[in-house]
Amino acid sequence: MLKKFIVLAALLLPACFANAHEYKVGALEVAHPWSQELPPNAPTVAAYFIIHNSGNSADRLLSVDSPISGEAQLHEHVMKNDLMKMQPVPSVDIPAGGNVTFAPMAYHVMLVNLKDRSLLTDGKRFPMTLHFEKAGDVTVEVAVQKKAPDSMPQHVHAQ
Fold first, then answer.
1. Region 100-122: what's the mean pLDDT?
2. From start to end of the chain, where are the E strands?
3. What are the pLDDT digits (tens) for 126-137?
4. In sequence order, what are the residues at sequence separation of 6 or more whose Cβ sits closer than 8 angstroms to the Cβ of residue 102?
5. Which of 53, 90, 98, 137 has the fewest Cβ atoms nearer than 10 Å?
6. Those residues with Cβ within 8 angstroms of residue 27's Cβ, 6 or more apart along the chain or in another chain
7. Burial code of 26-36, b = ≥16 C-beta within 10 A, e = fewer?
């Protein structure tokens, strides 16, 4: 009996890890939070993820914070006068039944006044808490990677 339990546990373990990088709060799911490894002297770091709203009503990401930084800002990239520009936004709407992708050249979180750079190397993770208007708060673990995931969409806002 013990052997069967160990075999079953070993078979289920990869499935547990596969879902370990998705977080749920209310009708919202935050998937694949990640950040790119940067040089040790980089003054800021960006974090990316996808938010899916399976609910019937919209929600709003109001703010983000992380113990590794003194401040976290919601940003977006916009084209102004033929120039791509990054600018802060007060919040990000999450449409009912829709997705919002935080990715390079789109919405993203800027972590500034970095306090703990030891967690910003490839293979490490750091905590980040997202504060939603309706769903409440959810803390995710942001995976630091040498490069962007191959499947990460570029320049996507709301769908």
1. 93
2. 22-25, 28-36, 44-53, 59-65, 69-80, 83-88, 92-94, 99-102, 108-114, 125-132, 136-145
3. 999 999 999 999
4. 47, 48, 49, 50, 51, 108, 109
5. 90
6. 53, 54, 55, 56, 57, 59, 135
7. ebbbbbbbbbb
CA–centroid distance for 132 within its chain:
13
pLDDT bin (cut points 50, 70, 90) of residue 38 is confident
C-alpha–C-alpha distance, residues 95 and 159, integer Å: 8
Cα angle at 105 between 102 and 110, to 5 degrees? 60
**Half-sphere exposure for 146 (CA within 13 Å, toward CB):** 0
Rounded Cα distance, 14 and 19, in Å: 9
The residue ranking higher by pLDDT, 38 or 113, is 113
Q: What is the pTM of this model?
A: 0.81
